Every structure is written in structure tokens, then in C-alpha cells.
Amino acid sequence: MSYSFNLAAEALRKSLVCFVDVGTPTSPSWEAQGYKTEDASIEFNPDITTITDVLGDTYTDVNKFEPAITFEPNTVRMGAKLTEKMHEYFIEDKLAEFAEFRAAIVFGYIDGGGPGTYLAKIYDKCTIYPNGLGGSSRVDMPFTINYGGEVTLGESDGLRTGATIA
Questions:
Q1: Confidence of residue 19 (pLDDT cuts 50, 70, 90)
Q2: 11 Cβ partners below 8 Å, 6+ apart?
Q3: Would you state the pLDDT for residue 64?
Q4: Hey, which bits of 7-158 come out as E strands?
Q5: What is the tens place of the pLDDT at every residue in 24-66?
Q6: What is d(CA 165, CA 109) in angstroms, rounded to the nearest whole number?
Q7: What is the DSSP letter of 115?
Q8: Distance CA 160, CA 163 (A)
Q9: What are the two backbone dihedrals, phi and then psi, of residue 78, each rounded to the nearest 5 degrees?
Q10: How far is 142 from 35, CA to CA, in rounded Å?
Q11: For residues 148 and 122, is the Cβ–Cβ distance under 8 A?
């Protein structure tokens, strides 16, 4: 498959956006993540197998990727729906709920299927968990997204909260 990169020069970091569906199964609501986060990279975490055969030749296979990203500091603020859900799940010990998120990676530098859209990689069973709660001058709740489940390719009509992703 070939992808059309929509670039004048270099891809800017703001064009790679992670979204989490904070709505309901019948009414999705995609929230962009990364408020006041200066640096966040999707780690691929490959599952690699390396063997050396009887002839002394070494072979390496990548069996799968287990992508994850951490957002830190993630300051607790009004209107941050994912942070509100994580607080609820933590306070009420709803541990299973942390593994029931839909999330998407939107590549704002790769054209989607329609005009004015971007390629989106959508995961249907992600685990999102807080790494802590606290801070110095503000309350922060850094968190990690472990992408998982069935993966579909789709498109997004934007790179900010409120974008439609399908």
C-alpha cells in the first residue's frame, strides 16, 4: 500500500496526534491528548526473536509491535474528559475499565481517503492508566496509553479535540 505524504518540508510534531474516545459506544467523542506536554513519542516496543543457527548465522524476526505513549505531566484541568474518567476509575477501583478505551493515532502529514482528511490508525481495546497523582505547584496525573485490540485504518477530519475519526 502506498501513502501520500502531505509535506512542504519536514513533518512538525503537532501533526502526529493521539486521540482517545471519551464518548459512548453510540456517540464517540475524540479528545486530543498532550495538553502542556512538551515531548511525547510513541514507543514501538517490538517483540523480537533472535536465533543463531548451527551454521553460525544470526536471524532476527519482529513478531509484533506493542506501541505505547506516555503523557507527562498531564495537569488536572477543567474539561479534560480522559482525566475525569481516570479519576473515577481510580477512586472507585474500576480497574477493568482502564482496559476498555478506543484510541487513535492521526498522521496529519499523510492524506486520508477523502479531501482534507488525514490517515488515522484506530485501536479498539487500549489500556490507559495513570502513572501517579501529584506534582509541585499543580496537580498532575501523568498517564500511559498501551495501544491494543483490533486495528483499523480510517481517517480524521482534524488534529484537535472534536475531530471526527472513522
A1: very high
A2: 5, 108, 109
A3: 95
A4: 16-21, 30-32, 46-52, 58-65, 68-71, 101-111, 118-130, 143-146, 151-156
A5: 989 999 999 999 999 999 999 999 999 999 999 999 999 999 9
A6: 16
A7: T
A8: 6
A9: -60, 135
A10: 11
A11: no
Residues linked to residue 74 through DSSP beta bridges, in sequence order: none
d(CA 12, CA 30): 21
Per residue in 102-122, pLDDT tens? 999 999 999 998 889 999 999
Nearest CA to 163 out of 108, 110, 123 is that of 108
> HEC profile for 31-55?
EECCCCCCCCCCECCEEEEEEECCC
Neighbours of 106 (CB within 10 A): 28
6 Cβ contact partners less than 8 Å away, ≥ 6 residues apart: 109, 110, 111
Q: How far is CA 41 from CA 1, 78, 160, in A?
A: 25, 25, 18
Whether the model pTM is above 0.90:
yes
